[in-house]
Amino acid sequence: MYYGGTLCLFKAFTQTSIFGLDVILVIFTMGSLGMILPSPGGVGTFHTFVTEGLIIFGMTHIQAAPFAAVAHGIQSIGILILWVFSWIAFIAFKKKGN
Fold this sequence. Notes:
With about 100 residues, this protein is mostly helical. It has helices at about 1-10, 20-35, 45-55, 60-95. The longest helix has about 35 residues, at about 60-95. The radius of gyration is 16 Å and the shape is elongated.
């Protein structure tokens, strides 16, 4: 699901739609490494890793930085939506058990 979302995001941007699955996997991995480094919510490290990865594959900083910010925002929104659903499910199962 996480990689699929990244793939859709790459295809949504004109500048990144030219990349194949191999490049997308590399950038996905770099973003994941940026998220696991100790920083609050991956802010800064995710953006840096994704931006620099895209620069390695030929994009300019002006093109790569907004992509990293939008990618991080969309992924964060997805996590929040899943959190809300899990919280509702938790409340429902808790009430059902009482």
